[in-house]
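Duplicate of #3305? Posting structure anyway:
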């Protein structure tokens, strides 16, 4: 189904043993940004890779954020360097479409995961592949939709996910992000604080992929 760079196979449940386990936090939030909204506000000319005409970027990984039950850590001390080497980061440009974003997410969030850069990025991809994005959510035609309908479609497509474990956010009446809560071994879990931050509008616009 469509993703940041085209087609990807449907997700399958992740075996916890196959995922590096972070520490020093309670759970992750996988933040998936709806590119058409971001591009309208930040790169309407399509100069960047994420927004160029023809790439057809839909959801991209904004980040994988370590969280506490209340609040979240940021910019933690780490033995890893601040900079993510291009040789490592380039392997993730299909889901995180710029080295700048990769580096920022590592410094602000990944450094708080208790993982190396390599393991943090590997877990980020595993988290992205853990989530099934149904066609009803990805194939936007520019019309109006409801955050509740998006949540319901995600819950139906992902066994174990509940409406209490995700949030649809909006900006200026448009779909902004989907945020999904995961345990350190990437099982779905509820997260009341994240859920409370969801968009409260009854309907929003989902700009189409171009």
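Output from current build:
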């Amino acid at each position: 189904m469509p993703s940041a760079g085209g087609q990807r196979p449907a997700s399958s449940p992740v075996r916890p043993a196959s995922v590096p386990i972070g520490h020093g936090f309670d759970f992750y939030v996988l933040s998936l940004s709806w590119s058409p909204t971001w591009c309208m506000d930040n790169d309407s000319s399509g100069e960047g890779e994420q927004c160029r005409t023809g790439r057809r970027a839909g959801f991209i990984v904004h980040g994988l954020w370590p969280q506490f039950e209340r609040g979240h850590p940021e910019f933690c001390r780490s033995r890893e360097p601040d900079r993510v080497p291009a040789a490592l980061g380039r392997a993730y440009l299909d889901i995180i479409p710029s080295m700048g974003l990769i580096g920022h997410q590592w410094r602000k969030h990944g450094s708080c995961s208790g993982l190396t850069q390599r393991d943090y990025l590997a877990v980020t991809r595993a988290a992205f592949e853990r989530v099934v994005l149904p066609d009803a959510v990805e194939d936007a035609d520019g019309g109006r939709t409801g955050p509740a309908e998006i949540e319901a479609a995600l819950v139906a497509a992902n066994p174990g996910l509940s409406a209490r474990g995700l949030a649809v956010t909006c900006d200026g009446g448009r779909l902004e992000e989907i945020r999904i809560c995961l345990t350190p071994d990437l099982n779905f879990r509820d997260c009341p604080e994240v859920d409370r931050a969801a968009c409260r509008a009854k309907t929003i616009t989902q700009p189409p992929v171009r």
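Confirmed duplicate; merging threads. Helices lie at 35-42, 86-89, 99-108, 117-130, 135-138, 147-157, 192-196. Strands lie at 2-3, 6-7, 27-34, 59-67, 144-145, 166-171, 174-182, 204-205.
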